[in-house]
Amino acid sequence: MDKLKTSVPRQALVDTLEAIYRQYHQRAYVHPDPLEFLYTWEDVKEREIVGLVAACLAYGRVVQILKSVAVILEAIGPSPRRFITRSALKTMTQTFSGFRHRFADGDQMAALLYGAGRVVRQFGSLENGLAAGLTPDRENLLPALTHFFGQLTRGRRSPGHLLPDPGKNSACKRLHLYLRWMVRNDRVDPGGWRCVTPSELMVPLDTHMHNVGRRLGFTQRHQADRRTALEVTAGFKAICAEDPVRYDFSLTRLGIRSELDMDCLPS
Q1: Positive or negative, the Cα torsion across 46, 50, 53, 58?
Q2: Which has the closest alpha carbon to 17: 241, 255, 240?
Q3: Distance (Å, rounded) from C-alpha 208 to C-alpha 254?
Q4: What is the DSSP string of 207-233?
Q5: Is the predicted pLDDT of residue 264 greater than 90, yes or no?
Q6: Percentage of the chain with pLDDT > 70?
Q7: Nearest to residue 113, comparing CAs of 153, 74, 156?
Q8: Whole-number mean pLDDT of the chain?
Q9: What is the phi-psi region of residue 224: left when phi exceeds 0, alpha when psi lies from -120 to 50, beta otherwise?
Q10: Distances (CA, A) of 208 to 42, 222, 246, 247, 249
Q11: How far is CA 215 from the centre of its chain?
Q12: What gap in Å lies between CA 156 and CA 227, rounded to an integer?
């Protein structure tokens, strides 16, 4: 196991993280979180599409996120898979006409879902589309995610801000959040994908998890970029190599739950 680059005694840190995990890694603490939309879908091939929509819209105020996800899911109907594989781009553009979520509009949502439909038609599922970019000697999932991004964005229209490019320096928080939802399988994350294991996941790094990583001594960096995400992930991997994002959900309750804040973490 890698040595933790932190002044916090390892056992004290593990004990604290496990206590937070036991208390807050529960379905009861999911709302409000776009993850809750995935629970309705038992079929993984439907859930992976719902998850993509929810993850790509997971920025901004949570009330608006939930509203935007609900609007899209209502528009695409009872089978997201059927909608994305059988609808023309023109139909999708008309369906989402007038939609807006912060920087994203209906044309970009149409481009995202049309690209997803193209991947499903070619590979059979979004999971298989990601798996097509995996190599046996991989160090992490970034090359596979870059391939996946390329497959989703191959058309003449771009999903724009909805889908971050893993080939750039972004931490790609929403893509890694999507992977957490689809790969981990427990009482919070519904899972369903088997092409990769939880040990390969990267922390979905946003400002909050960046602050957590800095407090725990996993990174000294001031930018919440890809390099920082790799450093914070390495810190958690030193604690739980088989599941470095094990504590992600419970730690993101800090600041959401009034009784839980950053002061509960050792520093």
Answers
A1: negative
A2: 240
A3: 8
A4: HHHHHHHHHTTS---SS-BHHHHHHHH
A5: no
A6: 93
A7: 153
A8: 93
A9: beta
A10: 31, 12, 16, 13, 12
A11: 22
A12: 30
Q: Which among 95, 90, 81, 57 has a CA at the least distance from the CA of 156?
A: 90
HSE-up (13 A, CA, CB side) for residue 112 = 25
To the question of pTM greater than 0.85 for the whole model, the response is yes
What are the C-alpha distances in Å from 5 to residues 9, 15, 91, 264?
Answer: 10, 17, 53, 20
How many whole angstroms separate alpha carbon 266 and alpha carbon 215? 8
CB contact set of 64 (below 8 Å; sequence gap of 6+): 101, 102
Q: How far apart are CA 159 and CA 140, in angstroms?
A: 25
Question: Three-class SS of residue 193?
Answer: coil
112-131: burial string, b at 16+ Cβ within 10 Å, e else: bbbbbbbbbeeeebbbebbb
Are the C-beta atoms of 177 and 55 separated by less than 8 Å?
yes
